[in-house]
């Protein structure tokens, strides 16, 4: 932007401190505006909120002197409120997600920022968040949750917070030394042993019954998808999370083994990169069940669907939306049938 682009008339420019500070009028507003250049070369602009020239000069030079002092002492010359930086972090993560290069965890970070971080820290200056603020936040979060959060929940919140701090440091709104260390005192999750064979028999049988117990249509559709989701993961070795949620129909194809038998091959991509999975024969049944929930897809045979390389996610509800709550629904399922000791 041109240094004079927001000035209505060059004759209204008043230079102070050897031209380092500029006062000017903008449009028909009565108040004097001011600007000075930061060490980064970016112009810092603000309103003096006064039409009195003498007072405006004092306010402008004081702001300039304060910025010079902060720079000399190694502090940011300017800063932002937490909510402003947080919204930039959300916009960046959402942009990465829309472009297909964002991590699945970004959805959880965005949710944590909107539900917990902005409501509590929103009006605070990003460079003035102290350890006392973090301790107070923990007490507030405990009240909101109604229980002690698990370590995984706090890790998620801390990761979201650090993304906000990273942007603030990159933009010069706080220094690395001002970023507080985030601790995790949450409850550790207790991992249950793998399901035994009899337990898996119970799970498969109860997964058929579970959708019938739903009182709402969306819950029923979620439980129907959960059944096929669990069975496909069980019979392919696919990992819950990024690998499964990124699976599209175009990633599934027929593969003929050296023994002459034909198998389904799924190409998945997760945190460790892409890998190929060979599915057990019954996976075709589960995939066809998902296919039949979509008007466009059920018009094709299963073989034609794979040949068409359809660029749509496999694990979606019948209305086309991709849910992020299958893990919670599985936990609800295990709890209902007395099997809850761990999540997917």
Task: Describe this protein with a few key phrases.
344 residues; alpha+beta; three-stranded antiparallel β-sheet; 7 strands; elongated; disordered N terminus
Description:
The chain has 344 residues and is of the alpha+beta class. It is built from 12 helices and 7 strands. The strands form 2 sheets. The chain has a 4-stranded antiparallel sheet with strand order 1-2-3-4, with helices on one face. A 3-stranded antiparallel sheet has the order 5-6-7. Strand 3 (33-37) and strand 4 form a beta hairpin. The longest helix is centred in the N-terminal third of the chain and has 20 residues, at 53-72. It is elongated and about 85 Å long. 23% of the residues are buried. Mean pLDDT is 85; it is low at 1-11.
Helix and strand sequence? EEEEHHHHHHHHEEEHHHH
Strand content of the residues, in percent? 5-15%
Helix content: 40-55%
For the biggest β-sheet, the strand order reads 1-2-3-4
Shape: elongated
| Averaged pLDDT | 85
| Low-pLDDT runs | 1-11
What's the N-to-C terminus distance? 52 Å
Q: Give the beta-strand count.
A: 7
Largest sheet: 4 strands, antiparallel
């Amino acid at each position: 932007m041109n240094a004079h682009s927001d000035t209505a008339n060059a004759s209204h420019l008043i230079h102070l401190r050897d031209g380092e500070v500029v006062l000017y009028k903008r449009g028909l507003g009565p108040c004097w505006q001011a600007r000075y250049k930061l060490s980064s070369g970016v112009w810092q602009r603000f309103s003096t909120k006064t039409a009195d020239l003498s007072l405006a000069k004092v306010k402008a030079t004081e702001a300039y002197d304060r910025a010079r002092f902060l720079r000399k002492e190694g502090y940011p010359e300017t800063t932002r409120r937490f909510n402003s930086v947080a919204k930039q972090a959300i916009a960046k993560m959402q942009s990465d997600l829309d472009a297909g290069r964002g991590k699945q965890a970004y959805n959880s970070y965005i949710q944590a920022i909107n539900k917990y971080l902005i409501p509590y820290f929103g009006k605070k200056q990003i460079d003035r968040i102290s350890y006392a603020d973090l301790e107070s936040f923990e007490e507030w979060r405990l009240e909101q949750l109604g229980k002690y959060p698990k370590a995984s929940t706090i890790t998620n919140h801390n990761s979201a917070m650090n993304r906000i701090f990273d942007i603030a440091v990159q933009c010069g709104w706080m220094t690395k030394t001002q970023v507080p260390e985030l601790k995790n005192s949450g409850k550790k999750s207790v991992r249950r042993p793998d399901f035994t064979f009899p337990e898996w028999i119970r799970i498969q049988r109860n997964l058929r019954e579970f959708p019938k117990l739903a009182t709402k249509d969306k819950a029923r559709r979620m439980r129907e998808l959960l059944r096929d989701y669990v069975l496909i993961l069980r019979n392919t070795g696919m990992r819950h999370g990024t690998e499964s949620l990124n699976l599209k129909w175009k990633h599934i194809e027929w593969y003929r083994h050296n023994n002459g038998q034909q198998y389904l091959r799924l190409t998945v991509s997760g945190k460790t990169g892409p890998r190929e999975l060979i599915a057990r024969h019954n996976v075709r049944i589960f995939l066809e069940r998902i296919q039949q929930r979509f008007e466009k897809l059920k018009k094709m045979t299963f073989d034609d669907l794979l040949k068409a390389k359809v660029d749509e996610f496999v694990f979606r509800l019948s209305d086309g939306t991709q849910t992020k709550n299958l893990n919670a629904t599985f936990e609800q399922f295990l709890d209902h049938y007395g099997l809850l000791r761990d999540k997917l």
